[in-house]
Design brief:
The complex is a heterodimer.
Chain A lengths: L8 H16 L9 H7 L1 H11 L1 E2 L1 H10 L4 H12 L4 E7 L6 E6 L10 E2 L13 H4 L36 H4 L26 H6 L26 H9 L3 H12 L8 E14 L8 E20 L2 E13 L3 H13 L15 H7 L2 H9 L6 H21 L3 H10 L18 H4 L1
Antiparallel strand pairs in A: 3-5, 5-6, 6-7
Helix pairs in contact in A: 2-3, 2-4, 3-4, 3-5, 4-5, 9-11, 10-11, 14-15
Chain B lengths: L4 H21 L2 H10 L7 E16 L6 E16 L2 E8 L3 H15 L4 H27 L2 E2 L10
Antiparallel strand pairs in B: 1-2, 2-3
Helix pairs in contact in B: 1-3, 1-4, 2-3, 3-4
Chain lengths: ~425, ~160
């Protein structure tokens, strides 16, 4: 039972005023602008958009600023903002093979159609703090990706010659996959690469990777109602796409450490821009709304098949708004772990979809965890009363404190007032047992 | 409508798609400039006022399988008419002015008197975007990596 409290309006107002003041900080320090947050704290904005489940960089940057850098709070703000807009409908499914890639790597093949493009990455950095960056100088040249140093590299930037792809034998060609245009010789005027084929196609064409069909089924939508279990792969993906990155990261890690292992290889990890198409009912054909940044990860995992079907690789999939590499990778691993349809033995929490989907949303989790810090004065008075009754009854019976403690925590009815109904909150599982 | 039936209709629709895409992918300032070039044209009538709303973006399982709902984007839309020729603006982000300008330019682009000059402006915007695209690509391609595996000394 929740009992309302009243009063405190003036103190609350002052606390919010103080928050605004502290958030701004010393006046001699320039105020952060949204454009700075958008461009210089871009991964924070990406994370807030992914977990807020709303691709809106300006609003996400504002949320980061307003939340004083607390990204979970910022996610909450974005989710709340979302509710004030009408819905236009559903987009056409994205064509991620047509992504304009800024980064694309594969852990399974060193030579593959489309090549390996490192893009702007923390990989292979030495993780040494850079004092030069502290001074506003832009940081170490090497960390900026200009090995020759200095901004002189910028002059040649628009005509960076591609290192020779040097593809021996052309495994890609033999698999019948279109080679990456311009991969042979550096040509600054080469046309845009267009589609970068998915790496897993190589295995799919050989028949040793499970295939994925477009069933044309209308996907479930978490925003339109509570999920029901068992969930389909569509619903799981939607839940994971907005899930807390830290939660997914730990779950993915748990599968690697033996709690539901399905040994992943990263077949394809890419970050880039993809067009969003929408079919307005009054036009009846799809039109391009614009481009959004996405991170996509496809893993190839150990084997499925059996009962007549030949053994083959299975796959996990991750897709997230913005530049969210750790999230997309963790998502793909957890998505794969959740695939109970493959008939694997359930050994870890990452394989339990009700557990994962029920606890992965940080707006829900933060709300319920945080509510316990709000006034619970009446609840607590009731607990206090109960404890005093138990102790009083025990001392009357002369049985000593140990039995009373055992009774209070053990769940059998304590002497004195009955436990049932004496906890006014009723939301504490320990008391319901 | 095109005189030669279904193919003409398909071609007209494709042109419309291209025009609308160019308008949605271009910066609103550019559309502002184009709109100002046609300031002397008949007054556009707003058929549906610009508004911002949510579009649920769909992905595909494994990139090519069945659809799933990924998350939402904010989009803006608007419908205007220039002498009865309807123009539709569908743009990303909560920018109602962009949607209005896209609708206006779409209507002008579909109007027999203004289609030519509008198309010339759009062609310039497409060239500009192509430059951006190839610059982005050159940046990315500059980080293309060639890994090689080491052969162990003991065979």
């Amino acid at each position: 039972m929740y009992v309302a409290v009243k009063g405190g309006a003036r103190a609350i107002e002052r606390a919010h005023g103080l928050l605004a003041l502290k958030r701004r900080g010393p006046e001699e320090v320039p105020e952060l602008g949204l454009a700075q947050i958008r461009s210089q704290l871009r991964l924070a904005v990406s994370r807030v958009m992914a977990e807020g489940s709303l691709y809106a960089p300006d609003l996400a940057a504002l949320a980061v600023k307003q939340a004083w850098g607390d990204l979970v709070e910022a996610v909450f703000l974005l989710r709340a903002a979302r509710t004030s807009f009408p819905s236009f409908g559903y987009s056409e499914p994205l064509d991620t093979a047509a992504m304009r890639v800024a980064r694309r790597i594969s852990g399974t093949w060193k030579d593959l159609p489309g090549g390996q493009i490192l893009g702007p990455t923390f990989d292979y950095t030495h993780r040494l703090l850079d004092p030069a960056l502290a001074g506003g100088g832009g940081g170490r040249a090497a960390d900026r990706g200009h090995p020759e140093g200095g901004p002189g590299a910028a002059a040649g930037r628009h005509a960076v010659p591609a290192p020779s792809a040097g593809r021996e034998g052309g495994a890609a060609g033999s698999a019948g996959i279109r080679a990456y245009p311009g991969s042979g010789r550096a040509e600054p005027e080469a046309p845009p690469p267009g589609a970068v084929p998915r790496a897993a196609l190589i295995l799919e064409r050989e028949g040793i990777l499970e295939t994925e069909e477009d069933t044309g089924r209308e996907p479930a939508d978490l925003t339109q109602g509570a999920p029901s279990f068992p969930a389909g792969r569509d619903l799981r993906l939607q839940g994971l796409a907005r899930a807390d990155e830290g939660f997914l990261l730990s779950l993915a890690y748990s599968t690697q450490r033996g709690f539901g292992s399905s040994h992943p290889f990263v077949a394809d990890l890419r970050v880039g821009l993809v067009k969003v198409e929408f079919t307005p009912p009054e036009l009846g054909f799809p039109v391009t709304l614009g481009e959004i940044e996405l991170t996509e990860c496809e893993t190839v995992n150990q084997f499925g098949g059996g009962s007549g079907a030949p053994a083959r690789f299975t796959r996990g999939y991750g897709l997230a708004f913005g530049n969210n590499e750790r999230k997309a990778l963790s998502m793909a691993m957890v998505e794969r772990a959740l695939r109970s349809e493959l008939g694997e033995l359930r050994k870890g929490p990452a394989q339990d979809e009700e557990f994962v989907l029920g606890h992965c949303d940080n707006v829900e989790a933060s709300g319920f965890v945080s509510h316990v810090k709000l006034p619970h004065y009446v609840d607590f008075q009731a607990e206090l009363g109960l404890l005093r009754d138990i102790r009083a009854a025990a001392s009357r019976g002369g049985a000593g404190g140990s039995r009373a403690r055992g009774d209070a925590s053990g769940g059998s009815a304590p002497p004195g007032p009955p436990a049932g109904g004496s906890h006014p909150g009723g939301h504490s599982p320990a008391k319901e047992g | 409508m095109e005189p030669d039936g279904a193919t003409g209709l398909a071609a007209a629709q494709e042109r419309r798609r291209e025009r609308m895409e160019t308008l949605s992918l271009s910066p609103p300032e550019e559309l502002e400039r184009i709109a100002s070039l046609f300031a002397g044209c008949p007054e556009p009538v707003t058929v549906r006022a610009a508004e911002t709303g949510l579009v649920m973006v769909r992905g595909r399982i494994a990139g090519h399988g069945a659809a799933f709902n990924l998350g939402e984007v904010l989009a803006s839309r608007c419908v205007v008419s220039v002498e009865g020729v309807l123009g539709f603006g569908y743009t990303l982000f909560p920018d109602e002015r962009h949607a209005y300008l896209a609708a206006l330019c779409d209507a002008l682009g579909g109007h027999r008197d203004y289609a030519g000059p509008v198309e010339r402006e759009l062609a310039a915007l497409r060239r500009r975007r192509a430059e951006t695209v190839s610059r982005d690509e050159a940046e990315a391609v500059g980080t293309r990596v060639e890994f090689f595996t080491m052969v162990r000394g003991d065979d």
